[in-house]
């Protein structure tokens, strides 16, 4: 009850390979899977207006921002909004604000963007991926996405992987300056993978070149504008609610309780925007 609700809607922007919701399983017993797991309902129960967007999962932030612009225009044309972007979604928000939305006016001076573990300066894992796979084999790798048990509604063209290299993100930042009057907030996360862990390899690749990271994005890359803090013992998927309950329980048993709770975190962001 102590969380405040912003007057204006919050638009959530997903990252690479993200979605809004998808249906998996047989037609007789379909299962609805949401990307922002448990977060939408938590915010809406506090009276917060939420729009969960879907953009091409593997396209560049430039192309994704165009789709994002149309969705926001369709739903909230002429209204003030709060943008929250996870991972590459934060880059979509920045490009949208710099190149597609009208600049803030004296009558509407604030238009905040909050980015969560966004690779503002790229991710060395993207460099490693492109060096290992190569442009010529990238279409074949993308074809593997069709073998997943769930199909991405908007798969995209795969340009995101090369776009997120550190050099290409340097160029992106030069062409996408911050807009005067827009407030930029950011969060980062750090994580130490276990002996057998989904993020162990990518974490090590990034750690060697960039330092502490959440498995895909380093702290150094995540900081943009006003940095609000570092989330401890949190990996890249935890940040959208895809937490491993077994890992949480094991940490509690070992006396290293993980304090991060996704719904509470985003309620806190909404409260921050309201205040």
Automatic annotation (TrEMBL):
The keyword Hydrolase applies. Signal peptide: none annotated. The keyword Electron transport does not apply. InterPro entries: AB_hydrolase_fold. One of its GO terms (molecular function) is hydrolase activity. It comes from the Eukaryota. This is Alpha/beta-hydrolase.
